[in-house]
Amino acid sequence: MDKFWRFAPWITRLLLLAVTALFTLIGWRYLADPVGKAAADEITLGSVMAISRLRVAFGAFPLAFAVILLGCLVSTKRLLIGLVVLATMIGIVTAVRFLGIVIDGAAAEALRLLQVEAIVLTLSVIGILIELGRRRRLREISIAGEPQTGHDHHAN
Questions:
Q1: Which of 92, 85, 90, 87 is nearest to 68 (CA)?
Q2: In whole angstroms, what is the distance from residue 79 CA to residue 152 CA?
Q3: How far apart are CA 66 and CA 23, in angstroms?
Q4: Residue 13: CB partners within 8 Å, gap ≥ 6?
Q5: How far is CA 33 from CA 63, 67, 111, in A?
Q6: pLDDT-based confidence at 133, cuts 50/70/90?
Q7: What does the alpha-carbon distance between residue 85 and residue 65 come to, in Å, rounded to a whole number?
Q8: 49, exposed or middle or buried, with CB in 10 Å at 0-12, 13-18, 19+?
Q9: Percent of the chain scoring above 70 in pLDDT
Q10: What is the chain's Cα-based Rg?
Q11: Rounded CA gap, 47 and 59, in Å?
Q12: What is the spatial distance between Cα 92 and Cα 130, in angstroms, rounded to a whole number?
C-alpha cells in the first residue's frame, strides 16, 4: 500500500496532464481556425465580431483552463486545487451538455461527448479522493513521528 501512496501524486498528475493536453488542443484549434471549426459543425459566422467571439470563447477559455491545470500539476501542494478546478469545470460542462441534450435533442456527437465528460468527471472525483487520502496519510505519518521524504511535506 505504501507504493500506491508514493505514486498517488503521479496518478493524479497524469489525469491533469491529459486534460491539459485536451484543452490545449481544443483551444489551439479554435484560435488557429475558428471559421473552419465552426463550419465543421455547420455554424455560420456572419461577422468579424462573431469570429472574434468564437475565437475567445472556444479558443482562449479552454487554453486559459489548460494553463491553470498545468500550473497545478507541476506542484504537489497544488494538485488538490487542480483536481477541484477540473471537477468543477467538467461538472458544469457535463451538466450543460446534458441540459442541451434534454432541450435540443440527442445528437450522436453530443452523446459521445457527454460520455467522455462523465468519465473525466468521475476520474477527477476519484483523483480528489486519492489526493485527500494521500494528504491524510502524510498527516498520520507526521503525527507518528516518521520523517517525510521529498516535497510531500508541503501538501497541506
A1: 85
A2: 11
A3: 6
A4: 73, 79
A5: 14, 20, 25
A6: very high
A7: 9
A8: exposed
A9: 93
A10: 19
A11: 17
A12: 22
- Dihedral of the alpha carbons of 45, 37, 64, 86, in degrees to the nearest 10: 120
Per-residue pLDDT, 1: 72
Cα separation of 132 and 155, whole Å? 10
Q: Quote the number of domains for the chain.
A: 1
3-class DSSP state of 150: coil
Domain coverage including residue 116: 2-154
Whole-angstrom distance, CA of residue 89 vs CA of residue 62: 10
Give the confidence band of 5 by pLDDT, cuts at 50, 70, 90: confident
Give per-residue pLDDT as tens, 38-89: 999 888 999 999 999 999 999 999 999 999 999 999 998 999 999 999 999 9
Q: Give the whole-angstrom CA distance, residue 118 versus residue 43.
A: 26
119's CB contacts (< 8 A; 6+ apart) are: none
Report the C-alpha gap between 153 and 34 in whole angstroms.
Answer: 45
C-alpha cell, 111:
452523446
- Global pTM value: 0.84
